[in-house]
Amino acid sequence: MPRATFIVDDPMTRNAIHVLSRAPLETVLVRTNDVHGEIEVDPDNVTDRPRVSFEVPIDSLDSGVPLMNDVMRGDKWLDVAKSPVIRFALGHVISPAAHTPLADGKPVVLTAEGTMELRGASRPVAVRAEVTWLRKSESTARRLPGDLLHVVARFDVPLTAFGIDAHLAAQSLDKIAGTVQVEADLFGSTERPQVGADMQDRLTKARKSLGQRLMGG
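Predicted structure:
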C-alpha cells in the first residue's frame, strides 16, 4: 500500500486540543477545536518516516473564563501579538523500532520526539501517541470522507522552556503548574471534506460568534 496523506481539517470542528494545568490551588483546562494540519504515513509500516504537523491559533484557546483568556494571550504568557500560532511537528519515532503495519481498527502505540513552536521558540517534546487507521466505509463516511486516521497524542510542555515564568509570580504561584499536559485528539482523512455553501456560511457565522464570545464581546 502506498504512503497516504491524511488531512486534519474537520469542517465541523470536532478535532480537539486540551491543555491541563494542575497546580496545588487550582486546576485549569484550556481547549480549542480550531486545529489544522497534515499527517503522512506508510500504512504498511507506520514507523517509516511518518510526517506530522499541525497548528493552533492562540486566539482560539479558551479557558472558559474571559479574563483568564485575556491574561493567557498577553506578553507574559503566550504573547499572541508576537507569535499568534502554536505549531507542532513530529521529528522521529522512537518505538516500536520494528516494522509496524497499520491494521483496520486496531490501535498502534508509538513513542516519538517532536518539536513544538511557541512564543518564537522551538523546543523538543517527548510524545506518546495512539494511532488507529480506519478503512473507508459507510460508518466512517458519517465522520469524514475517505480512509481515516485517528491520532490521540499526549505530551508535556514545561513553561520555562518557552520563556514563560509568569507562573512564578505572586498572583499565579500555586495556581498554574510549571509543566502543562497537552492532549491532541485528531481525525485526518485521505479525502478533503466538501461542505455546501449553506453549511459553510453557517459554520463561518458560528466561528465568528465563538470568537466574539472568547474576546468577551
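Summary: The first helix runs from residue 66 to 73.
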